[in-house]
Amino acid sequence: MRTIRFLLEKEFRQIFRNKAILLLIMVMPVMQLIILPLAANYEVKNINLSVVDHDHSSYSQKLISKVTASGYFKLTGYNSSFNEGMKLVETDNADLILEIPHGFERNLVREGHQHLFIAVNAINGVKANLGGAYLGAIVKDFNNSIRLQLLPSSKFNEPAVIEVTSSNLFNPQLKYKFFMVPGILAILVTMIGGFLSALNIVKEKEFGTIEQINVTPIKKHHFILGKLIPFWMLGNVVFTLGLLVSWLIYGIVPLGNLLVLYLFASVFLLAILGFGLLVSTFCDTQQQAMFIMFFFMMIFILMGGLFTSIDSMPEWAKIVSRFNPVSYLIEVMRMVILKGSGFKDILPQLVTVGIYALILNAWAIWNYKKRN
Question: What CA–CA distances, in Å, run from 71 to 43, 52, 131, 135, 144?
């Protein structure tokens, strides 16, 4: 313990000596957690719409007003021909074209049906699908209201109608930030812990101090623990700051027990720090460590379930995600914060991440001993 205490004192002095790194550790995650949830949003609004109205009737004007009043569409063009609307799409000034044909009102009243044409710019597939679905739902609702106006009042009993009442669990107001903020916090904790630990031993190699350490009677596991514990503590500090920002800025209060959340985050930090130290034992320069960690971080983030649900991935990707510790942290963060899950609920994920922590740290100790 005395040896580890001296190593910790050395590490903390090095950390606090570099004021810029300390500010980055504390300020950067807070700023990112404030900014990123505002941008990382799958809610599609302000869809640019171009309307080609060949009818110019009262019904076509009511339809256009209903579409623009929905809050999802922004009218950027009211054209007289489809080619003019296409020019807006080609110059990225319109995402959808709604073409209303001649005789729209007449055919709807007399014949009871009329076709509309919707052209969707599908370069952005998500925006195209959601925009087309929104517009289709609005047209359907408009059609139902027109039918009620045109149908004569019945003298008989109204036909039976099935009504569906929905209840939104865990996020009643459907706020997208409640879903994204826990996942983004998990990514920030991963990046801080992974990059700092990956650069740690390599920095000793570049400065030449690793040779001085190797000639001392310090044991290898003491050396790894001395590198691990300071950043484990800093990772918990970043995690705490993230929870405070989530509460103060977004009003997110964990429904579950904070001790359960901190327990899992602490075990996860042991795993990701061990992975960073393992990378550091393989590299000789900080540049090599940065590139390797960047490669793995991209996989961790994109296959961690933050932006794409793991259940929607192909089978081979689901298998890969099981070896991704970040996916477990994102899942547990959402379980505890949004669903109020307890210790028994997260026990499978906790055991899995704990096994990863043991394997990665043991491998880092063994590999450092082998190479030095």
Answer: 12, 20, 12, 11, 20
